[in-house]
Specification:
By secondary structure, the protein is mainly alpha-helical. The protein has one domain. The chain has 3 helices and no strands. The N and C termini lie far apart (102 Å). The relative contact order is 0.22.
């Protein structure tokens, strides 16, 4: 290539796929929104299940406590009849909380794997996994308080 005056285009090597320059991919812009949403879902699932379970456990405990003294220790399921509406509400809250908890657990795992909000995702997984244990303890405590109140 010889200089012919004026402005020349910069030199372009011939295009050959074997020697094509490797272009680094642009880093993905990720936001921690997915992990944060998972954490909010996990906490919401716990609260959504805990409130009705407390009232259902307390009312069932009061029904059990009253009948335990009247029937002298003979157990029948009819004992829970006065507390039936709250027990059904507690069961609905339990199933809604379970569905949201599973959703939060899966979304937390996805957020952790895709690195979109790692710290909130870890907390969402911990809260969603520990919720059934905490809810069982809460329901047992509500039953005990209900029996003691009767």
């Amino acid at each position: 290539m010889t200089y012919q005056g004026g402005y020349a285009a910069p030199y372009q090597p011939p295009v050959d796929s074997r020697y094509a320059p490797v272009v680094a991919p642009r880093p993905k812009r990720t936001t921690p929104r997915l992990g944060r949403v998972a954490l909010v879902l996990a906490i919401g699932a716990f609260v959504l299940a805990a409130v009705p379970l407390w009232f259902a456990g307390h009312s069932a405990g009061r029904a059990i406590g009253v009948s335990a003294f009247l029937d002298s220790g003979v157990w029948t399921w009819a004992v829970l009849a006065p507390a039936r509406p709250l027990i059904i509400i507690g069961e609905i809250g339990f199933w809604l909380g379970s569905a949201l908890g599973v959703w939060a657990l899966i979304q937390g795992i996805v957020a952790l794997r895709t690195q979109r909000g790692r710290a909130p995702a870890v907390w969402a997984i911990v809260v969603a996994a520990a919720s059934p244990i905490l809810l069982a303890a809460l329901t047992s405590a509500a039953l005990a308080v209900g029996v003691a109140a009767a």
